[in-house]
Write a structure and sequence with these properties.
alpha+beta
Amino acid sequence: MSERVRARVFVSGRVQGVYYRANTRDAARARDVDGWVRNLSDGRVEAVFEGEEAAVESMIEWCHTGSPAADVRDVDVSYEKPDGESDFTIRR
């Protein structure tokens, strides 16, 4: 079993109002990645992904395209110490 990692991701572009959060949740659950996703007041989306390294990296790569209606301009990633997230949720 590979080491558990945690990434915090900020996605900018046209990423609100295009089902980006719901698609992120579905993609994360399909990859067995835990964490959460939420809209920010500045128009970006923030997500935390926690799980096996390959699965988290796959989610980061997924964020560059996101939902079919999204127009992603930038994905900013930072790594943190795992925090024991379980399941994947949409935060309001």
